[in-house]
Design brief:
The chain is built from 26 helices and 20 strands. This is N-acylneuraminate cytidylyltransferase.
Length: about 700
Amino acid sequence: MATPGESCKRTLLEDSDENSSRTKLRKVEKRHIAALILARGGSKGIPLKNIKMLAGVPLIGWVIRAALDSGVFDSVWVSTDHDDIEKVSKVWGAKVHRRSPEVSKDCSSSLDTIKEFSSQNPDVDIICNIQATSPCLHPCHLKEALELMTDQGCDSVFSVVRRHNFRWKEVKKVFGTALEEHLKHTGREIALPIEVCVTMLQETGMQEEGLFCIAAGADKLKKLKATLDCSTFQLEEFYSDPHAVAGALTTYLKELPEPLMTYQLCEKWIQASNISDSDKRLKALREVCDMLPEPNKNNFRYLVQFLAKLALESNVNKMTASNISNVLGPSLLWAKPEGSLAERAATTTSVVSIIELMINHSSCFFPEDVDIDSGFSSMSECPSTDSEAESRWRPGLFDSDHKHSIMTRELATTPVMRNGPGGLSGTSAQLNVKTPTSGPKGPSPFMMCTGDFCTKPLNLNPACRPRRQDWDGELCENGSFYFATKELIAKGLLQGGKMSYFEMCPECSVDIDVDIDWPVAEQRVLRFGYFGKDKPEIVKLLLCNVSGCLTDGQIYISANGEDMVSINTRDQAGIGMLIKEGVKVILIEQNPITKALADKISQRMGCQVLQKVDDKLKKVEKLMEKYGLEWKEVAYLGNDEPDVKCLNLAGLSAVPHDAPGVALNAAKYTCCSAAGRGALREFAERILLLKKQAKSQMERDRIGRDTF
């Protein structure tokens, strides 16, 4: 297997700004190059994930070690706002930049923090922002990437990985999405739920008594909402229930992140509605209406004109302008959530009177003629509905030329109508409509899948889908690191000027964001992570405390006065695994235990037990001398202050998850399991994994010598 550096590539990109004043860096020039690892304490996906143990090492420790061992940085920093992260960072050898509260918010960007660091450290010429959540980063990645800065004079270098993923356009949901975002995504001018619901109501709901007042069935409303949210529309069943359609329209308006009449103009709406003179009040309200953003104004106009038409049928549907405004007004304007109850009540009262006025004077507010009838239900004659014509329309058709129309059906005998829904959006789109043959339950021109909501491929032709081996794939940022000059950072950029990318191998491109990423990253880092400068050695001796490691530290006394301890069978199996692989295991105990208990443990575990070991360091050194071993060949599992020296010196050392802080800081590995609950088994598995890696490395070295 190639080493991480062997499968990585460096590539120069064209200068993105010919006029950029980039600094030419050469090896002969002395520049201060700093690594900066951002580690905020307020992680949302995984609380304090930056110091959570990953494969026995704090997450941030993996990248600190890689940065320090690369030897290319004049300083390695961790930027944090948390005391615990600061302590761990210093233990691992990094300096700490204590970031300000202004750049520690949830909304703060990485660039904000980097700019603050740069301004506080003006002697730093190049900053490498290293992602704390990239535990498979190796020193060779940083070395080779920096060469593009120093040798090629680049202003910025960033890491990428090659992906072979086919990408498709996202089908975004409609409900709960900001109006402007929805319109931009779909290329529409009238929001889909507004236009669809108004169209359906014009066909079947204008004379429905209590429209918008009578609640629809919850299941029906939920189904209609889901139908509008998905990429295919089958709306026929809802034509028989105009109350569900009206409910869907009201729900859409309520679920907008910001009211259609906008928070920004809320106070102006209220002030205008409080003017006593009726003529001046109408004039003021129209002025506020003209202040609405164009997308809001278009949709508001469309909706008000429909409501005005609905009110004309009030002798049948009982929906007067007053009734409509009482029901729909609070869905069009409301106070901000942080507002007081009095403010909310005032807003509700005002908007009800505003909407009533607008319905009664719609031609005054919107003098431009928008015919919402055309293309919906008015037809000069019914088209033929013979079986041949019936067979020519099919679901899923999409009129790509008419971005603002909703659905199109393919029916040659259907007359063409002008100013359909597209006309309401300021276009002259035409719809070919098949009139229902069975009243309200029949098909509607707005049933089919619209192109606005159908997905499409972004980087492939489905008709000519390549095999993986025939496609080079695409380069994607993997977020591991970003080099940039201080001049570029001062401009508010991490990428710019003369740019280059550094391609990392897929096995080293690991990122952790949410809980589900953790076990995947742990497996990957154990296999492909960087464990330090020293080559892995084969462990030949494991020394393990009895109390606090093999056991949970408790001694039980029987009725007969005999000492008893509890031993986990998983730990017993772990010792057996090590012995089978040729690793000698010795258990040591500082506290006095009876000889009978020690003999039982030795017999049960299949290894030697040393009692009353007061000076553990001296005892271990004697054992090493006896067996002709060096510290790098010794593994040590301890749990408290008397073990610290041995934990520091051993080639591989570990502590249980519940060990005191002094031991945690000294150990090279922290088990996920607690003492007496599988910690020894976990450490045994790690020893055997590293032994396997060491043998693999020795084999590669042997092949290299024999070959060359």
